[in-house]
Absent in melanoma 1 protein
Amino acid sequence: LSRNGQSKINPRPGKLVIYCESDYQKSGIEVFHDVLDCSSWVLSPTILVKVVRGCWILYEKPNFEGPSIPLEEGELELPDIWGSDSSEEQNERKSRKPAVIGSIRHVDYRVCRIDLYTEPEGLGVVTSFFDDTEETGVFGTTQKTCSIKVHWGTWLIYEEPGFQGVPLMLEPGEYPNLAFWEKKEAYIRSMRPLKMGGRKVEFGGEPKIIIYEKPFFEGRHVEIESEIFTLGDKEAEEKTRLTSVGSMKVLGGVWVAYEKPGFEGHQYLLEEGAYRDWTDWGGYNEELQSLRPIIGDFTSSHMIMYSEKDFGSKGSNINVLGIISNLKDTGYGLRTQSINVLSGVWVAYENPEFTGEQYILAKGLYPSIEAWGAKNCKISSVQPIIVDIVGSERGKVKVQLFSEPEFKGNCQILEKNTRCINSFAVKSSKILDGGCIVYDQEEFSGNQYVLEEGIYPDLTAMGCSPQTVLKSLQIISTELSEPCIALFEKAGFQGKKMEFSTEILNLQFLGYSPRVASVQVLGGMWVIYEHSNYRGRQMLLSPSEIPDWYEVSGCGQIGSLRPLLQKRVCFRLRNKETGKFMSADGNLDNLNLLRIQVTEDTESDDQIWVYQDGFIRCRMAEDCCLTIVGNLITPGSKLGLSFERNEDKQYWHISPDGRIYSKMKPKLVLDIKGGAQYDRDHVVVNTVNEDKLTQCWEALVV
């Protein structure tokens, strides 16, 4: 493999997990590399295989022999892994026998090619294929195949178009005839290579890496959770000092390794997995002098690439929301001189198909090529790093409590409300993917301390005094509404009213009286502080009405307040009356013909919605948002998707009772049209009716 950058492949680690029937929700057998013989593994008759990263092949016999099963990223339940008997009695007998896997192989090909020949021995007319081909024939005529050569990739070939029927798997090699297929000639109608998915992370908020001094995880090793500016730095602690890096295991997060100290030189992206030596991370050589974790929000990805420096408007630009394997195909071109990463973490590559030099881009502005460490302005392919849905308990809050400052001592992990923390006195904490409230008394009482996602090395960082003893913990639930709060001068929501939708650092400084007698939380979740600059006692409020603020809080004033920061949330909307899910139905190429309706559960992207800043977006088209169709908005108006224009009819508020209100027409909510016509399942807006359950929706967070 040439390492001049022009044909450099950037290898990626693989990961496959095998679960037995009784352990689907527990830890399974994790596989990171080829296994020559795993026939001794004790498995249940039915197994669940989850491919987190890479493409894999399961073989019935050791040494990669016998019948095989190709696997791409996702999960697959195998009730009778090698079963071939059709009789019911034999199937029942076999189902009681444990599954046996002889060997497992990881395949990772970024560039694929297969040649089909019309004559044996590689003679005759040759036709080359490089990607998925749903129909090989031209004008309905399919060319016969008598021999095959697979240059790169593992291919599935079909005798039916559209990848229909039982495929035959071909690995790299020459096939001078079709004896392996028990044929002299064949008519191959469709084919596709096994494909690895995009870059992904399972534990983005828990960066951890083990570095070994020698290859194959031998020699002295250290465990790192933060950046190393210079490897072997004499000023570094003895226990974290290494003179060289021979191999690595990335246990959590996404890391970037650099050829030179100070995060300079060639960049190597490290996903979670095991790297046996420098070839596993795609190094040009053994040199690796610095590394750092990438901290960011991996749930949303958006960037704008510019052909000119400093985001110049004279040249061309392109909005990027997902994977592009060859920017040349978009019409934008290959010259990029500045980039604005609006959200997410991206990897840009010098060459197509994610090859050549790679550059890691976190959220921020990159006004020139030097900002991302490049020596030229060529970028040919890009892909975001996303949270892995298969391997991650996404949306589940995880709290790590430590008995000593700086995350030392004993550790307790909490994932649900805890009425009494009695294991040890908490001195530091890490909040992963969510937020929580900790209390200085049991049963969620006493003073509150609101902790959002992040790390808190001591009690002071958590907003507590050094003497505070934390006694209980409550997980903060998701709130799907725009922040809005009203403060009243008198009890019962009487007197002067002050309404806010953004943070207020000092209420009195802005000319308002800090004396407050009643509060209405109209949307969002709010952290209320007794004094200015977020000081004093604090309290978290969700949408509710508090007619007597003093009775609830114990004080008659509010010095400062802010809406609680929440990441965007992916969810499905189930109608409480019908049990069906809101879906986007139609062709994205013509938004005017697309309609929003309820359907049975399909677990597809057209049923997954994203809520952020008042917009409801469909996951299959995140540059579009839910809107009311037409200019005349009345009860019965239908819904569709349109590009974001900051129009009032594109904003929505989801109330605690499950009703979804229009900002433009506050008395209209989402409803199902009903009736007996063709459009009875269409979602419309209707006047609020407390007796209609079709107006109530349950948001199921993904």
Observations:
- The CA atoms of residues 531 and 559 lie 4 Å apart.
- The longest helix spans residues 88-95.
- Confidence is low (pLDDT under 50) at residues 1-6, 390-394.
